[in-house]
Specification:
By secondary structure, this protein is mainly alpha-helical. It has two domains: about 350 residues, no CATH class; about 130 residues, Rossmann fold, CATH 3.40.50. The protein contains 22 helices and six strands. It is globular and about 80 Å long.
Length: about 525
């Protein structure tokens, strides 16, 4: 299928921009945005990831953001505009992918609209972007195999390994399995050779550069092993359905819990549909198969965390299959009593209802979409982050950063647990080796080493956020997770000032009473 419907493809792009541009200044995430920006600032300061600090994200996103900061300046809004751009491009890629699953361009824009209304947190965009980019590359390859398309598929997979190593691994696995069934182009070994060439093109220079910096071995360890530990935050794979309406829950909460079950249901239905085609001798359907495989293998994001933000970053293949299933169902009824106008009315009604429902479900307190605007009207007046927050949150952060800025610039500070964006907001560099303090990412020996590093640094101020002590489970409270570090802070630092949930701790003088947490 040749896709030449640019006007239709422009609609989801404009729709995405219309939703994102008014909202990109709203909200903030001290953990997730800091977990990306803190390494960026350390790179700009001359440090090398994995050698000078611990991280389990692939390096491509750090160096991309560092490049943008070196051109436009270190500002959180530069990063937000990058998300706006990637969202718009992703909406178009979703449309292009859908055109290979459905016949009508009107149907093809629906999954792009569903994504644009509920894209998930800004900083998660690399996951769906990488997923859809690799899916589209393989869809084009199956559509008309050629050396050029095989090379591009490998090139995109290699670039993905530098942005999201988990999605890159999935893409390579699916591609290598699929190449066994591709029509040969240019000789028996041409497909794999050209795919391998494209795959290696972005990886080899990066590997050589990190090897020269003595960072290749720690990079492999941290990306391939450390990143898979401690990422599960739920006791069951999905939020329970019973009771239907728990205390404080309503129809929107129930719809959110049902939404977690939509992807596996669609994957099962698609597998059954493909099996029936095979039994009837109709042959396979490569677009449906590829989309289903990407959906199944990326759905682990939701199984590990089971919250709406993680669900939304991996649900895009399910949106594609949903629209393909609806079109197939309605086309089957073409000869029945349903006229084209009735089918169009049903399609518009279902789409509008889904969009409105997603607007209600996508209400988490993270910078994510136009819904981030609600309840926020306090402009944060900081050199690196001119964002708009809730008044209480904004005044608290403003007060904390103002206290840090009163210290001499060379005075070291430490911000914990899991609030690395504080360093960026205050224009400071994180002096610690480990960025996250959570189970699975810091063992006892590493905890003791962190204490030694803090002793060597002798920070003038420790910013301690009480809100990040727990994720709701008592065993995950900071004092239980890292008792040595917690006791060290109690013994050597005292409370100087409390600003909201932030405790500002200064070195203890002899004879001072212990700080009461």
């Amino acid at each position: 299928m040749r896709v030449r419907s640019l006007p239709w493809g422009l609609f989801p792009v404009l729709f995405s921009l219309a939703l994102d541009l008014p909202a990109f200044r709203y909200g903030i995430s001290l953990l997730d945005e800091g977990f990306l920006l803190d390494p960026v600032m350390r790179i700009l300061a001359g440090e090398v990831p994995y050698r000078d600090f611990y991280h389990f994200y692939a390096p491509g996103r750090f160096y991309l953001c560092a490049l943008l900061f070196s051109i436009f300046g270190a500002d959180l809004l530069v990063l937000r505009l990058l998300w706006v751009f990637l969202h718009a491009v992703l909406a178009y890629l979703i449309y292009r992918s859908a055109r290979r699953l459905v016949a009508s361009p009107g149907y093809a824009i629906v999954p792009a609209l569903l994504f644009s209304v509920a894209p998930g947190p800004w900083f998660k965009v690399f996951f769906p972007f990488s997923t859809v980019a690799n899916l589209l590359a393989l869809l084009r390859l199956y559509e008309r195999p050629s050396r050029g398309r095989i090379f591009v598929a490998g090139l995109i997979a290699g670039a993905t390994l530098l942005l999201r190593q988990d999605v890159g691994g999935i893409a390579v696995s699916i591609a290598l399995g699929g190449l066994l069934f591709l029509p040969r182009s240019g000789g028996a070994r041409a497909p794999f050779r050209w795919y391998a060439f494209g795959l290696a093109l972005p990886l080899l220079p990066v590997g050589i550069a990190f090897h020269a910096a003595d960072a290749l071995a720690p990079m492999v360890d941290q990306l391939l092993f450390a990143g898979l530990r401690g990422t599960s935050a739920n006791a069951v794979p999905m939020p329970p359905l019973w009771p239907l309406f728990p205390s404080g829950g309503g129809w929107v909460d129930l719809a959110g819990r049902l939404l977690h079950r939509l992807p596996p249901l669609l994957y099962l239905l698609t597998a059954a549909r493909l099996f029936l085609r095979w039994r009837q001798g109709s042959g396979g359907n490569a677009p449906l198969t590829l989309t289903m495989l990407f959906g199944i293998l990326t759905y682990q994001q939701d199984l590990r965390r089971s919250d709406i933000p993680h669900l939304l970053q991996c649900i895009t293949p399910a949106w594609l299959l949903l629209v393909a299933s609806v079109e197939a169902l309605l086309e089957r009824e073409r000869r029945g009593c349903c006229t084209p106008r009735i089918r169009a009315a049903v399609g518009v009604s279902v789409t509008a209802g889904a969009l409105l429902l997603l607007c209600r479900i996508d209400t988490f307190d993270l910078p994510h979409s136009i819904l981030s605007i609600r309840g926020k009207g306090y402009p944060l007046d900081l050199p690196h982050a001119r964002v708009i927050l809730r008044r209480e949150r904004g005044e608290t952060l403003q007060g904390v950063i103002d206290e840090i800025l009163r210290l001499p610039r060379e005075a070291p500070i430490v911000a914990l647990p899991d609030i690395p964006l504080v360093y960026f907001l205050a224009g400071r560099t994180n002096p610690l080796f480990f960025e996250l303090f959570r189970p699975g990412h810091l063992d006892e020996a590493q905890e003791l080493w962190t204490i030694e590093r803090i002793e060597a640094i002798a920070p003038r101020l420790i910013v301690y956020d009480q809100q990040h002590l727990t994720d709701g489970r008592e065993e995950n409270r900071f004092e239980h997770r890292f008792p040595h570090l917690y006791r060290y802070i109690l013994r050597h630092y005292r409370l100087s000032r409390q600003i909201g949930s932030f405790s500002l701790l200064v070195p203890r003088k002899k004879g001072a009473t212990p700080w009461d947490s």
